[in-house]
Design goal:
alpha+beta
Length: 691
């Protein structure tokens, strides 16, 4: 890794601190006890082909070698003498022999010789670091102890009090699903998702509004650098061990140096690319768009949106700020406070209030169900007055929240697992569907929408947006250049939605959303039930929605927007046994009796007719008796056995039925109003179509 560190072939004098390293000239033994040195002459060819140069080897101390040989001779003689019994000993005497094997255990992950690192490029004036006895983590900690990193870039925006940090979690979906929350929602409809470019999707830094702490880039690179140094040292040790065992060794010249020199010189990496990336991200995060008198809030007491004053913006110069940061790093000023280079963006002084108007609206009719209408009114009030700044995303569930009785929501018809049930908050889907159509006509982008499982009637199928808690949701983004306001309200069995802002579509252009049936789908196969209520079911359908673009020159374009599938209701039929039992119960309640006609069919006739018919039949079949003859009759006090009784027993009565009129009003809701008086005079160009 030539750009990170250098394996020094020659010795460069350097100062050292006591305890950190030892002068090589003062050593009296070989640096490596397990291997002998290889002469530089024998290794000249091999070294020329490697990016790392060997260090000069030392000449053996022949005096020490001679002394060691004499000591070995004396030791061997002593052992022989002892084995023979010693002076006056007997050759037959028993001698207990004990052998002691001494093994030196060495940690393979630790350096076992003097190796010196030059880290002066990291910290000016730093002394050589001897890593003898250290593992990789200890070397890293020793290097980090040589410098302090606290490099901070300060936000120089003069209007910092007006600045708000962006929401980095924007666009992230909740990990909790309806199933995980134990909620069965009407979420089997067709899903429509539009990906909108998120300016913060590539942001990896998390600065504060006033400052940014630059990450320690030296530490980030240390692990890789130290790993390569350790691998190189181990490789050299292995190579020298192999040469020693093969007998390919020769004498080396005597080392006469008197100063310590570095074995490796660590080079500071080039951080320019990383710093440029950080500053580019910082410019995106700290950018403050000027406020040109847009709406800022909604006054519920007056029912009007409040306009704010003009506020200048701010923009950071990433290139020049990055240059200042790199200058501090190259000068080893890792604890510098750097003021970012930036400039203000002047806001427009022109009045923008006159440019605000209703840019999209839609109205739908509701039912006469007071509870359902109350739910619609409550949800519409929660949304009314919402202000979205440029780039902000609207979430129905986030704004409205969970629909509960504590918030004033009541039980009303709603779809649940394909069934019409009474559910707290039933009906709020009409609010989201009405808002969706207003958003579409304003030219804004819906980012998430799901259709109902079954075709609705308060809007044309294919133009609905279902919602449930915690999902599915309805979302759209304000992709205009100015803040927008949302007005939603319920009044006289109508749901109304308006988008208030500066025109998004080109002058003279308007959009509308229409949907056409593409095909009918067959009625699903019936399901056999033993309780509840029978139903006939219904056919499914598929719809193609179109964006109708009315251009300023009077021309019209019809563009496919999305395709929607709606399921059919599954018919419910009683089993034959239950059907017969219920029919018998109904007949009995009406005073009818089941009889078998001449064709063998069971029919129900008034009980009196059944008795007369039975009496006539018995008389015709009974033999003649004398006037005074008594006829013996069996006692009529027996009961049907339990088995027979259980066969004809009617099933448990179903629970209270949902008000028929209410169910009919929800499923077969009012026909959408064609024409929207709220749009009159609001969008002057193009035809006006309501919902």
């Amino acid at each position: 890794m030539a750009d990170r560190y250098i394996d020094n072939g020659g010795k460069r004098p350097a100062s050292r601190a006591r305890g950190q390293s030892r002068a090589r000239g003062s050593q009296q033994s070989e640096r490596r006890s397990t291997t002998s040195r290889v002469s530089s002459q024998n290794n000249a060819t091999r070294s020329s082909n490697s990016r790392y140069s060997r260090r000069p080897e030392r000449e053996p101390n022949y005096g020490i070698i001679a002394g060691s040989a004499v000591a070995a001779v004396i030791l061997v003689g002593g052992l022989v003498f002892a084995l023979k019994g010693g002076i006056g000993g007997s050759s037959n005497s028993s001698i207990e022999e004990t052998t002691y094997a001494v093994e030196e255990t060495l940690d393979p992950n630790t350096i076992h010789e003097d190796v010196y690192l030059d880290i002066s490029s990291f910290a000016e004036g730093a002394q050589l670091l001897n890593i003898n006895g250290m593992n990789q983590q200890q070397v890293k900690e020793a290097i980090k102890a040589q410098y302090t990193w606290n490099l901070v870039v300060n936000n120089t925006n003069p209007l910092l009090s007006e600045f708000s940090m962006p929401d980095f979690s924007s666009g992230e979906s909740s990990s909790e699903t309806a199933a995980e929350a134990g909620i069965q929602a009407d979420n089997d409809g067709t899903e429509q998702t539009v990906e909108v470019k998120n300016p913060y999707s590539s942001i990896t830094i998390r600065p504060e509004a006033s400052s940014f702490n630059v990450p320690d880039l030296i530490e980030v690179n240390l692990d890789e650098m130290i790993t390569q140094i350790f691998e190189d040292i181990k490789s050299k040790e292995s190579q020298e061990t192999e040469e020693s065992s093969s007998g390919n060794e020769s004498e080396s010249s005597t080392e006469t140096e008197s100063v310590v020199a570095a074995d490796y010189a660590l080079a500071l990496p080039d951080f320019t690319s990383q710093i440029n990336d950080y500053m580019t991200q910082l410019a995106t995060v700290w950018k403050m768009n000027p406020k040109n008198g847009d709406i800022t809030s909604y006054d519920r007491s007056t029912g009007e949106f409040v306009f704010g004053g003009s506020v200048d913006g701010y923009e950071l110069n990433a290139e020049t700020t990055a240059a200042k940061v790199m200058e501090a790093i190259n000068n080893h000023n890792y604890s510098s406070q750097i003021d970012a280079d930036g400039k203000t963006i002047s806001a427009s002084l022109d009045s923008i209030k006159d440019k605000y108007k209703i840019i999209g609206s839609f109205t739908t009719n509701t039912t006469s169900n007071s509870i359902r209408n109350g739910n619609i009114k409550t949800a519409a009030a929660a949304i009314n007055g919402t202000v979205l700044q440029p780039g902000e995303e609207f979430s129905f569930n986030q704004i409205v929240g969970q629909r509960t009785e504590e918030k004033g929501y009541g039980g009303a018809p709603a779809y649940n697992e394909g069934e019409v049930v009474t559910e707290v908050g039933g009906g709020v889907c009409q609010v989201s569907s009405t808002l969706y159509n207003a958003v579409f006509r304003a030219g804004l982008t819906t980012t998430y929408r799901r259709s109902h499982t079954f075709a609705p009637t308060y809007v044309t199928p294919g133009t609905d947006a279902t919602v449930s808690w915690p999902g599915p949701d309805y979302k759209f983004v304000n992709d205009s250049d100015h803040a927008i306001g949302i007005r939603t309200w319920y009044e006289n069995q109508t749901m109304n939605a308006q988008i208030y802002g500066v025109r998004v579509l080109p002058e003279g252009v308007s959009w509308e959303l229409v949907s056409e049936k593409a095909m009918d789908l067959p009625v699903p196969d019936p399901v056999i039930i033993t309780e509840g209520t029978e139903s006939e079911g219904s056919a499914g359908s598929e719809w193609q929605a179109y964006k109708i673009i009315h251009n300023a020159d009077g021309t019209t374009e019809k563009v496919k927007d999305h395709y929607t599938h709606y399921s059919g209701h599954t018919p419910k039929k009683y089993s034959p046994e239950v059907a017969a039992s219920l029919a018998a119960e109904s007949a009995a309640a009406a005073g009818l009796t089941a009889v078998t006609n001449e064709n063998g069919e069971i029919v129900y006739v008034p009980a009196s007719e059944s008795v007369e018919s039975t009496s006539s039949s018995e008389q015709s079949e009974q033999p003649e008796q004398s006037e005074h003859e008594e006829t013996e009759r069996p006692e009529d006090n027996s009961e049907p056995d339990s088995e027979e009784e259980s066969v004809h027993e009617a099933p448990p009565a179903p629970g209270p039925e949902t008000n028929a009129e209410t169910v009919h009003e929800y499923i077969e809701g009012p026909v959408p109003v064609m024409g929207d008086s709220l749009n009159e005079g609001l969008i002057e160009e193009g035809p006006v179509v309501g919902g």
